[in-house]
Design brief:
- It is a single chain.
- It is built from five helices and no strands.
- The protein has about 160 residues and is mainly α.
- It is elongated, with a radius of gyration of 25 Å.
Length: about 160
């Protein structure tokens, strides 16, 4: 019996062919997405609008989260990982470790710079108006709560 005549083998080969098509589409879509992000990076790098920069940073974290979830699903699939060669896994682990180290260094750097900003604000006689508004709202909320007028606290407080 020819191995292609075996219905199980044929079914597996058809599954593999379908998976190849889906993965090729995935790679094409991801390349297109990278191009869009690079073009957006050119635009946002010239933008001095704080809100746009904040939204962009939040979107970048959302994209990272989405990709992480997809990657985790991929690596949790035994059909995928059971045939993945050790070399491919080693390369993946090494590259992911480098990404994690860079990402944690980014977190350390950003948090350190923000801490320095807070130290500067703390040493000055005046505080930013937005912080005054924040604490006014917080105190008002606490007073309403103490007066049993329980309301949902705004998310940003």
């Amino acid at each position: 019996m020819n191995f292609m005549e075996d219905p199980k083998v044929r079914m597996i080969k058809e599954h593999i062919d379908g998976l190849i098509r889906r993965l090729e589409r995935w790679v094409t879509d991801q390349k297109r997405f990278v191009n869009e992000l690079e073009r957006f990076g050119e635009y946002i790098s010239t933008n001095e609008d704080r809100l746009s920069l904040l939204y962009s940073a939040q979107a970048m974290l959302m994209y990272i989260e989405r990709t992480l979830k997809d990657f985790e699903t991929w690596l949790n699939n035994p059909v995928i990982t059971s045939i993945m060669p050790i070399e491919l896994l080693k390369e993946l682990e090494e590259r992911l470790r480098k990404i994690v180290i860079d990402f944690v260094k980014l977190d350390i750097d950003h948090t350190s710079k923000y801490t320095e900003l807070l130290k500067k604000i703390s040493s000055e006689p005046r505080v930013p108006e937005i912080l005054k508004l924040y604490f006014e709202q917080k105190v008002a909320h606490m007073a309403r709560e103490a007066g049993s007028e329980r309301r949902e606290m705004p998310r940003f407080l």
